[in-house]
Specification:
The chain is of the alpha/beta class. It has nine helices and seven strands, in the order βαβαβαβαβαβαααβα. Helix 2 links the parallel strand 2 and strand 3 (66-69).
């Protein structure tokens, strides 16, 4: 009978040893926490973001290989960013962008177009710029939300933008193979961005979620980062959309 030799799995702190993770939007929130967890798993990290001061603090904390402060929707600057990266890279995660909520009657079309830029066009531009820089079986990992499956008043743009992301992810996974492309669709995540959007209503939202979510707690950046690392290291996964919302959709669907 043929025999196979078992290969011992690497310990957590060496799981990504020798790999390079690029995080676009890596100066705070989900991006920063993903970079932290990747670094703890042995990876080198490259960070980009709009806020230079936050970016420098993050780079110092994580001993980042390099950083670049720029607006990721600037296509020419994004291309230069990837051209300037040293050596091949293993994973790219994009967390840049902010949600846009408005009733149809109140839509600011400049802001709405920017929101589309931060999702559709940014995804395509990253894929175009990064594809030949990522090693085979590496990952392009994008973010969206579960709002496409929970439409409501004021979510005309948000629902439409997030609905297109799974199809775009699947198509890119076929076109860019063997580079893998995956999508994380998150519900509410307790980040500085969420706090800035909700203002003095943030604690009320946290209390509501703790009481109603099946997991009985609020989803945090560390939860999203843990899923991101799984998608980076599990080389059997591509073209997939992973929901992570603490069961929020179940509550919406049940009518509770």
């Amino acid at each position: 009978m043929p025999t196979t030799s078992a290969v011992a799995p690497r310990p957590p702190e060496q799981q990504m040893l020798g790999q390079t993770v690029v995080v676009i939007g890596g100066s705070s929130g989900i991006g920063l926490e993903t970079a932290r967890q990747a670094r703890a798993a042995g990876a080198d990290v490259v960070l980009s973001g709009r806020n230079r001061e936050r970016l420098e603090r993050a780079a110092l904390e994580l001993n980042a290989v390099s950083t670049a402060a720029f607006d990721a929707t600037d296509a020419a600057r994004l291309e230069r960013f990837f051209e300037d990266l040293p050596a091949p890279i293993d994973h790219v995660m994009v967390t840049a962008g902010t949600p846009y909520y408005a009733r149809l009657a109140d839509i600011d079309f400049t802001n709405a177009r920017r929101n589309v830029d931060e999702h559709l066009w940014l995804t395509l531009q990253v894929a175009h710029a990064a594809a030949d820089r990522v090693r085979p079986a590496g990952t392009l990992l994008f973010m969206s939300s579960t709002l496409a499956r929970r439409p409501g008043v004021g979510l005309v743009i948000a629902a439409a933008v997030n609905a297109m992301m799974p199809a775009l992810t699947a198509a890119l996974a076929l076109e860019l193979a063997p580079v893998r492309v995956n999508l994380i669709a998150a519900g509410f995540v307790d980040t500085p961005l969420s706090a800035s959007l909700l203002g003095d209503r943030i604690e009320q939202r946290r209390t509501q979620l703790r009481a109603t979510l099946p997991i009985r707690r609020v989803v945090g950046p560390e939860d999203i980062a843990a899923l991101a690392l799984h998608l980076m290291t599990n080389t059997a996964v591509t073209g997939a959309t992973y929901d992570i919302d603490g069961g929020e959709q179940l509550i919406s669907n049940s009518g509770t």
